[in-house]
Amino acid sequence: MHFLITGGSGFIGSAFAKRLLSLGHHVTIFDDKPLEQSFRLEPIKNQISYKQIDFTKLSALKSEVVGFDVVAHFYFRANTSVKDPNDDFEKSMLSTFNLLESIRANKIKKIVFLSGAAVYGNPSVFPTSETYGPLTPVSLYGAFKISSEALLSAYSALFDIDVLVFRLGNVVGPHMTRGIIFDLIKKLKNNFDFVEILGNGEQIKDFIYLDDCIDGILHVLNNSKEKFSLFNLSSGTTISVNDIAKIVKQEMNLAHITNRYSNSELGWVGDVQKVHFDISKIRQFGWSPKFDSKQAIVSATKDLL
Questions:
Q1: How open is the CA angle 15-17-20, to the nearest 5 degrees?
Q2: CB neighbours of 271 closer than 8 A, spacing ≥ 6?
Q3: Which residues form the domain of 249?
Q4: For the domain that residue 187 is a member of, what is the CATH number?
């Protein structure tokens, strides 16, 4: 099969590309940066087709999204803020709309979309299942993700497109360049007196190791017969920020370094106190993670050191 991966130079997209190649598929990647800046793709750059593209330009995108069996839409603005919502909208919602229009125009019949925990906002039920509602995101990232899900649902119903949506937990693994493990390692390498913890350290999150994430996506992709499928995809287990810091310090032989906390309960504007997924739906579909949250954190820390 021929896969198009948007955002394929990223953390998850590049791992997905490598797995697809190992399974004998053809892979084309569209991203908004030159291939020379995509360090994660260096080992496979001669095995893929790559095009730098502006996803906000519909006419250009429509002429390029041709002849693919599956589109994996992983391109999305990860670090949304309150400073420039218009730019965040263009790199998230507008890009998704333009891609869907290109898929419709060129009669491509299957798309995979990565959503996330941010769509749930601050839910009142834990573990949180796919049927939880109402969905009240507290970040632009979450708002754009749930809006994209709605667009995908409509295009699926109106234009006969098979859609697979995965609401991911916190994905960790090799080649990360952001996130709590990456940040803690960087801070600990630069300061042996203390490590700064964003928030009060009591935030609880649900993590999934990168290999598990790719396994879960492929399992559903290979077995789903539904026109529109939506799954939580994570380990279904949790770990606190304090415990993550403890693991990272232990792996770096810096267990004696103390934590210093910021003045707020949460780590940043739009952060939430707790994420814990109910993954019973995807378990019933025949997939289960190999790593729980703690194991994922330990393995990812070793990957980065």
A1: 110
A2: 139, 198, 199, 203
A3: 172-206+237-273+291-304
A4: 3.90.25.10
pLDDT digits (tens, 9 = 90+) for 39-52: 999 999 999 999 99
User: Contact 8/30 with Cβ under 8 angstroms?
Assistant: yes
Distance of CA 149 to the CA centre of its chain: 14
Report the C-alpha gap between 168 and 173 in whole angstroms.
14
Total domains present in the chain: 2
* 145, part of any domain: yes
- Strand pairing of 204-209 and 238-240? antiparallel
> What pLDDT shows up at residue 300?
98
**Which tokens in the block code for residue 29?**
């990647």
Which residues are CB-neighbours of 24 under 8 A, at least 6 positions away?
none
The alpha helices in the chain, defined as continuous H runs, are: 11-22, 58-64, 85-89, 95-105, 140-159, 180-190, 210-223, 241-251, 280-284, 293-304
The sign of the dihedral angle between the CA atoms of 278, 284, 286, 292 is: positive
Q: Kindly report the pTM of this predicted structure.
A: 0.96
Dist. CA 154–CA 157, nearest whole Å: 5
The CA distances from residue 24 to 9, 27, 47, 171, 203, in Å, are: 19, 9, 11, 25, 41
